[in-house]
Amino acid sequence: MKLATVVLIAALAATSPLSAEEAAPDTLGLESWFVTSDLNITLTQSAYSENWGGSEVGALTWALNSNSLASRQLTSRINNKNTLLLGFGQTHSQSRETKDWAKPKESTDLIDFESLFRFTYDWFVDPYLAGRIETHFTDDSNPKETRYLDPTLFSESAGIAKVLLKEERREWTARLGGAIRQHVDRDVFDADTSTSETVSTQDGGLEFVTDFRSPLLDEQIMFTSRLAAYKALYFSEEDELAGLEGEDDWKAVDIDWDNLFSAKITEYLVVNLYFQALYDRQIVDEVRIREALALGFTFGIR
Fold this sequence. Notes:
- The protein is built from three helices and 14 strands.
- It has one domain (about 1-300): Outer membrane phospholipase (ompla), Chain C.
- It is about 5% helix and about 60% strand.
- The strands form two sheets. Strands 1-2-3-4-5-8-9-10-11-12-13-14 form a twelve-stranded antiparallel barrel. The protein has a two-stranded antiparallel ribbon with strand order 6-7.
């Protein structure tokens, strides 16, 4: 967790206003910041009056998503890449009997920030150091209160990375290294004792990550893909699981494959197709699929 803090502080320092020495990157032979960000909002709505004869119910679903990237060659030997994924949405629905609107339920909730430092020494591969934070805007699992930015997964990793393809708007990288993760869940409610406590676990192992980003069809579509595999070699709760069903599930390889197609129809109108495949045997011994197709408004920085 300390390493993740150091990496994040370094990332924030790197993205702060440039000093006098850094203000003229051409004299240092360094690149300026490459920044791209897509923000879009989608909305689906339907409603029925109380005297409607069918069984349909009204619904309102909205989602706000953001996909941002900021990268720069900070020095001749240090390259920094920051990615931020944000998503939040809710679904409001009517009661089938009364047609009254119920309390909204979350349909999308994600905060995913990663900062990656590559040390570019013109070797065949580059050493890297990375920190990542994954959490949610809200958590309603505790019936007593709504928690914010919880639960949280901190990841720190180090190893070797290779840039397989590098162009202005097209990039493909792969990395392999060791990783340490901490999962923190604050104020977990115990129904038997009616008390809450913070639960945290740690694990360590090997990670492989490949990132690909490229425009398609004359840059009308932006395709972003990230495939991550993680093999745990250590788990802090191993002794507690001994003798229980699924005691070795934590040893299985975790897979997370994210894909996003973002197509601009007009300057402010976009179609997004998101596909995610997850495998984590500790949750369920099956591949979990999430797919979302949405039409909405977009605002971008490139």
